[in-house]
Amino acid sequence: MTRATRPVGIDMQESDENRAIIAAIRGDNPDMEVRRLPGLVKLSAPGQIVINRESVEAHLGREWETGEFQLAIVTYTGNFAEWDDDQIVVAWEH
Questions:
Q1: Residues 69, 1, 51, CA angle at the centre, nearest 5°?
Q2: What is the pLDDT of residues 35-79, one digit of tens each?
Q3: Side by side, which strands form the sheet with 79-83?
Q4: pTM
Q5: At 21, is the secondary structure helix, strand, or coil?
Q6: Which CATH code for domain 7-91?
Q7: How far apart are CA 38 and CA 55, in angstroms?
């Protein structure tokens, strides 16, 4: 398995608002797998997962700050390779 295909993941709490965030993330990451468990949604993808503020805002129907993402996640696999006002990227840096 190469670094580019090493899977990364995000586990998120199950909620109405988080379902919209997950739909936005899924739209921007077509290779991502979504697995639903009671109270938890597990996202995984080869290489990286990208969360775009504009996509999340379109699904939520309101402004969204990337810092709000901290309230939605339970755990993650990988590194936050980028986190600014417009985008969050989970990927392996090493």
A1: 15
A2: 999 999 999 999 999 999 999 999 999 999 999 999 999 999 999
A3: 48-52, 87-91, 79-83
A4: 0.91
A5: helix
A6: 3.90.56.10
A7: 26
Which residue, among 21, 38, 40, 15, has the nearest Cα to 88 in the 3D structure? Answer: 21
Q: Which two tokens stand for residue 72?
A: 């939605």
Tell me the three state secondary structure of residue 61.
coil
Q: List the structure tokens of 19.
A: 């379902």
CA distance 19 to 25: 10
On whether the CB atoms of residues 55 and 28 are closer than 8 A, the answer is yes
Picking from 14, 24, 20, 31, the residue whose alpha carbon sits closest to that of residue 87 is: 24
**pLDDT reported for residue 5:** 80
Q: What is the DSSP letter of 14?
A: -
Residue 30 neighbours by CB distance under 10 Å:
7
